[in-house]
Design goal:
alpha+beta, 6-stranded antiparallel sheet, 5-stranded parallel sheet, 19 helices, P-loop_NTPase, coiled coil, ATP hydrolysis activity
Length: 867
């Protein structure tokens, strides 16, 4: 399958895209910015091949351009099964389908889709197409190669192995599963599952042994527990008797400790009362001392307030004079700034006027440049139309001519070597004729057909033998083949065919050059933008662009000078903006007012306490309260010594310990009776435990014997099964080896020489093996290396099934590859491009700079021009 032409109209963001005469092999890099429609191209190819024209699915509705009711259209021309196929579909609005197959006819509607599906599936392996058709993000999960039909067939032919059997195992042609193998597998699966775990039937024997063992252990535990209960009853009864004998003496000790504790508590109460008296005396002394300190502070504050007011009033005069001088300077600077602002506005107006004139002159000059560009583009378009008309002559056609003419020459030469020759020598006067024509007296003639020679009155007829007829027929057939070729292509000679091919290739090269020149000339413009600019109303001015720019420069310099003057005035005025002298005066006046108010309040407070106790009386109160505190403190020290000797805390602890010991023994006696009753009830309920223990032990031994017999049979079945599986896996390794070899060959430029790969039983790539034998799971590789390996895997598939020519599609790959890997992958892409069509859609064409012979197509160019 080869894609030769594609045309897309009104499909999502693509208004109109057309690409014709696509070569039958090469790496085609289609590039453009994000959201320009690169991935949409792949979606369009998939939809025209696989989606019915009558579909109303949401995915089809999403392909209609936003805000438009037109029907999306896709046309694709293919070379499929040796025939030229044209498929057209339109969806949603007026749905249509049209199919033309050379030598087969034309179809429409549902018939067209049914016929194409039959023809497509006949000549294209759908699983191979899916594997090589890689949309953006589709290579996240590794391919399972065993699901690609044409690949498995190619591997089977290359390895001599028939294919993948059930469970992922490989079967060789000379070792297919027979009744014996079925019995082996059946016997194995009686005991083990597909994953090697014991089956329910086999596990049941283990479970029965485990249950019997557990039951026997439980019976032994119950018997041992019964013996324990009997021993506990004896132990608890002995302990209860001992506790009852000890209780009377402990109760007497507890009562004596309680009397000592009560006496100590009385002394502690007296000490606590003296503590309260001492604290009260201390509080009264602190109150007296605080009253004295407050009176002394009030007197000092009144004197300090009067002195502060006097100092502040003396400094007020100087601050008022500085504020008046500051007001005069502020008025002068404000007037100077207003004049500077007016001059700056006038300069701004001059700059705007000069800029408008300069923009008009630039527009006028730009229009002249665009008109010149339009003429150059029109000339390129005319040349492209002429070159597109040059008929296509494939290299294969020239090769066919070379082969045909060579065959004619070879056939003629062979015929001349094998055919009989007639040599004649006669006197000059002898009359000779050959096949009715006069002949020279001396000549040599190749006898290819029946030949008549006349010598005077003598006639000689020569008929070629069978060998001559065979070579003669070969000459005739070669000449007929050459004539058919001339009739088909219209070229009389090989030279004409070569000249036509040269003209076509030169036209294609020139077309590529013109396309590049067209893109370079347009730059970031589109033709619509260019035409819109030329259709705009022209602007005319009387000055040149240089004169206008000089005027802008002059006005800008004047503006800069005006701005500098205004900024200088701003700086001078800003220095007085905060009015430091006025602020200092206001602050000083506020501070003076606060000082006067504070002095007044302090004086009033001092006047209000004139009738209160005097300073001497306050000092006397302090002496009295201190003497009272000293008296209470002495009494507290005396009782503290008595409390130390009484030790109430220690006596309380002894009493509590004695009480706890008594309670413990009383509880112990009560609990002993309860425990004895509980143990006796268990002993009565466990009658017959010894008999159960003996019976369950016998059942356990019987179950163990049955398990041993089944285990021996299971081990034998497992050994036989694993031997068969080992041989099957060896066959699988031979089956997968051609793919491993091809993938390793392609991967050498990327991952180094000697690299190998491992496939699992389902032919899924699992490990990469370095030249030194280091195994690494492919999921542990970096994101870039995983992507490179997925690309190489698809190339290896394409290489192994080269007879099934299916294009390879990649959308936005190699984004995580460094410069060295990009160069190595470029070599692999170039090799694959020599075999087949490789389509790459990307927003970064520089990633593929190392792909020799690549064909780059900007998406914008495909949307504007035929190729």
């Amino acid at each position: 399958m080869l894609i030769t032409d594609i045309e897309i109209r009104d499909f999502k963001t693509i208004r109109h895209l057309r690409w014709s005469n696509i070569p039958d092999h090469g790496v085609f890099v289609i590039h453009g910015d994000n959201e320009q429609g690169k991935s949409t191209v792949l979606e369009a190819i998939a939809q025209v091949l696989h989606t019915k024209h009558s579909s109303r699915a949401q995915a089809v509705k999403d392909t209609q351009p936003l805000g438009s009711d037109v029907g999306p259209q896709v046309t694709v021309n293919l070379t499929l099964g040796g025939k030229n196929v044209r498929l057209f579909k339109q969806w949603l609005k007026t749905p249509r389908a049209e199919l033309t197959i050379s030598g087969d006819g034309s179809y429409t509607g549902g018939d067209a889709e049914q016929r194409f599906e039959e023809f497509f599936h006949k000549h294209v392996d759908q699983t191979l197409f899916t594997a090589l058709y890689n949309r953006q993000g589709s290579m996240v999960h590794p391919l399972v190669l065993g699901g690609i039909t044409s690949l498995t067939q190619a591997l089977a032919e290359a390895s001599g192995v028939s294919g993948i059997g059930d469970g992922g195992h490989t079967q060789t042609r000379d070792a297919e599963a027979g009744p014996l193998l079925a019995r082996i597998i059946g016997e194995y699966h009686k005991y083990y599952t597909q994953r090697g775990k014991p089956t329910k039937q086999f596990q049941a024997h283990h479970d029965r042994v485990a249950a019997a063992t557990q039951a026997a252990q439980d019976a032994a535990s119950r018997l041992e527990e019964l013996r324990h209960h009997v021993a506990e009853v004896e132990r608890i009864a002995t302990a209860r008797v001992a506790a009852e004998r000890e209780l009377p003496g402990l109760r007497e000790i507890r009562d004596a400790c309680h009397e000592d504790y009560e006496a100590a508590r009385q002394i502690q109460h007296q000490a606590e009362q003296l503590d309260r008296d001492q604290e009260l005396a201390r509080v009264r002394l602190q109150a007296a001392e605080a009253a004295l300190a407050k009176r002394l502070e009030l007197v000092e504050n009144e004197r300090a307030g009067r002195e502060r007011v006097d100092k502040l009033e003396a400094a007020l005069v100087d601050l008022r004079q500085a504020a008046e001088a500051e007001d005069e300077r502020s008025a002068t600077l404000t007037a100077a700034r207003a004049a500077a602002v007016a001059a700056e506005k006038q300069a701004h107006d001059a700059v705007r006027a000069a800029t408008a004139t300069r923009d008009a002159a630039a527009s006028q000059q730009r229009r002249a440049e665009l008109e010149k560009l339009r003429r150059a583009l029109d000339d390129i378009a005319a040349q492209r139309r002429t070159l597109v008309a040059v008929p296509k002559v494939a290299a294969a056609t020239v090769t066919q001519y070379e082969t045909a003419e060579s065959a004619v020459r070879l056939a003629r030469h062979t015929h001349e070597l094998r055919a009989p020759k007639l040599a004649v020598q006669a006197p000059a006067a002898t009359k000779l004729t050959l096949n009715g024509e006069p002949a020279d007296a001396e000549f040599e003639h190749v006898v290819a057909d029946t030949t008549t020679l006349t010598v005077g009155d003598v006639t000689i007829t020569i008929t070629p033998g069978a060998g001559d007829t065979e070579t003669h027929d070969a000459v005739a057939q070669a000449e007929a083949d050459l004539a058919d070729l001339i009739a088909k292509h219209g070229f009389a000679t090989l030279a004409e065919a070569r000249a036509a091919r040269t003209a076509y290739t030169e036209a294609q090269s020139t077309l590529k050059l013109l396309a590049t020149q067209h893109d370079v000339l347009l730059g970031e413009l589109s033709l619509d933008e260019l035409d819109a600019a030329l259709d705009a109303e022209p602007v005319e001015v009387d000055v040149t662009l240089a004169e206008a720019e000089a005027a802008v420069t002059s006005a800008s310099q004047a503006l800069a000078a005006a701005v500098a003057d205004r900024e200088q005035a701003d700086v001078a005025l800003v220095s007085l903006a905060d009015r430091p002298a006025a602020q200092a005066l206001a602050v000083h006046e506020a501070v003076l007012a606060d000082a006067r108010e504070a002095a007044r309040v302090t004086t009033e407070q001092l006047e209000r306490v004139v009738d209160s106790p005097s300073l001497d009386e306050l000092r006397a109160d302090c002496v009295t309260e201190r003497a009272a505190l000293d008296e209470v403190t002495a009494a507290r020290d005396e009782i503290a010594e008595q409390l130390k000797q009484a030790a109430p805390i220690a006596k309380k602890q002894l009493y509590e310990a004695a009480q706890a010991h008594v309670e413990y023994l009383e509880n112990h006696v009560r609990d002993a009776a309860t425990s004895i009753a509980e143990h006796r009830s268990y002993i009565e309920a466990s009658v017959g435990a010894a008999e159960d223990h003996d019976r369950l032990q016998a059942e356990k031994i019987s179950a163990e014997r049955r398990l041993a017999a089944e285990t021996r049979r299971a081990q034998a079945a497992k050994l036989l099964y694993e031997t068969v599986v080992r041989h099957q896996r060896a066959a699988h390794a031979r089956y997968a080896q051609p793919f491993v070899d091809e993938l390793s060959r392609l991967a050498q430029p990327v991952f180094g020489s000697g690299v190998q790969f491992v496939l699992d039983d389902t032919l899924k790539l699992t490990q990469r093996v370095s030249a030194v034998g280091e195994h690494m799971n492919v999921r542990q590789l970096s994101g870039g290396a995983q992507e490179q390996l997925e690309i190489l895997t698809r190339f290896a598939i394409a290489s192994l099934v080269s007879d099934a020519q299916v294009p390879v599609f990649f959308d936005d790959v190699l984004g995580s590859s460094d410069a060295r890997r990009l160069m190595a992958m470029g070599a692999v892409f170039a090799e694959m491009g020599k075999q087949r069509q490789v389509f790459v859609l990307t927003c970064a064409p520089e990633r593929y700079a190392a792909v020799s012979g690549r064909v780059e197509r900007p998406l914008r160019g495909l949307q504007l021009f035929d190729d």
